[in-house]
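Colleagues,

Please find the record for the two-part complex below.
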Amino acid sequence: MPKDATLKTDATLKKDATLKKADGATGDTNHTGHTGTAVRAADVDVRFRTKKKDVTALTDVSLDVAAGEFVAIVGPSGCGKSTLLKLVAGLLTPSSGEVSLYGERVRGPRHDIGYVFQRAALLEWRSARRNILLQAEMRGMPATQARARADELIRMTGLTGFEDAYPHELSGGMQQRVALCRALLHEPPVLLMDEPFGALDALTREQLNVEMNRIWRQTRTTVLLVTHSIAEAVYLADRVVVMSPRPGTVTEIIDVGLPAERDYAQTLATPEFRTATGRIRELLGAVSAHD
Amino acid sequence: MHEEFTVSQSALRTTPVETAGVADRQAPRLHRRAADVAERSWRPVALLVVCFAAWWLIAATELVQPYLVPSPGRTLDVILDKPDYLWQHTWVTTYETLLGFVIAVAVGIFSAVVMVYSSTVEKTLYPILLFAQVVPKIAIAPLFVVWLGFGIAPKILIAVLIAFFPVVISMVTGLKAVDPEMLQLSATMGASPWQTFRKIRFPASLPHLFSGLKVAVTLAVTGAVVGEFVGANEGLGYVILQANGNLDTPMLFAGLLVMSLIGVVLFVLVEIAEKVFLPWHASRRDVAATTAY
């Protein structure tokens, strides 16, 4: 059965890739200037060796993400979703298979990505603005340009008025906005988000989802989002990758088929939204029933 | 260019924040801090007063022979009678303590950094450090006098040896306690190891380091006095030994009192330094203010 699933996946993938390419001609506002495939994983396996046993985290994972596309990854806990993001960032190397960013094979940490973790991971001794500017300092970006970009992001994420607050003075939602600004400061062509809103309360999460949609449309960056929330995945993404339990592999890729600009309440009421969430629930439920 | 950042940032921070986001932090905090200090210190001060009262009572009622326990008044008289003598020796002990402490901190931080960045060095050095810590310093003190003479050197060496260990341990813990996600983030930013150390690891380790420094500074006083006990012709250890030999208990008590005072003052100085350098540190925070949502 898994073999079957991958085959089907590949088929949908190819169809999708061509679709996206056709799209690229009109959607060239992408300010990174890249088109085509942003992220490609081909037959990726990841095995960890611990003292007691070998653990296969990912097996036979293939995925293509077009430039400017928003892809969400859902799956049961421990299925290797985060591992997949770390592979793309070059923080981990696959045991076999290949991961590439814009056609270039990933070997070692990539600098052309932005990364957001579940915990904001802010430096306690720096104000919000200086946390954002850490990105610029490490990269040696010109100071004036970095400050202008930081101001722009602060406005975009609704952090105005909190620039000089320290992390302990900020709520979880605000801290996560700071982390997002930091990840976007250098205008990365690819943004990787590992359950960025997982630790927030439901209301804050919805607000940030709406903002995330707007930010994605404004920046036109490619986003890979790992999440546990099916609603969040469908609301935000062009496509949702559903993964199986460990050893994680791609069970199915669902095309959401909603326009890029999405009103929250209206989107949740659309038949497309209900079809997609229903299908994902079915897949994840079926997966757990088999266990 | 990095400097440029820092300067403009601090300039920004001093400008008043007009928006509703962050309330003006300065004025209420000073008030609260004063109330805080009073709230925290009245109990220990009261206990100290009780102890002195008990001491005075024991001496006044001659419950114990006066030559064994002099009254607080007589002890104070001795201090006021011979201020130059006491000051001279206090200065010697303070000097030895500070020098020993500073060397211990420098060597301690350096070894901790090397140990954290190289596991080979850590595996080699750690057992030796532990051994050096386990050997009773008081037992090897006479040897140092034989090697280094009666001067200031053996006192400083003992102070360094005693104060070094808590510095290394706390610094190693601090450097290792850094959020691994922060380091991964740093890798994606293309930061050099030096940048990661300077901007992330070192500042993150400071709260741990300071708790080690507080232990170390009080131990450094002990180290210096131990050195003086074994062989010296100046310093408070020498004063106490002399007074002991002459059965001059008031002077002995005076020496003890001044010695404790050195320890307390140095400890408080380290605490102040901690507050100045790490205003953001969690254990120093009053109540985390929630500003949004």
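Residues 1-24, 286-293 of chain B have pLDDT under 50 and may be disordered.

Comments are welcome before we finalize the supplementary table.
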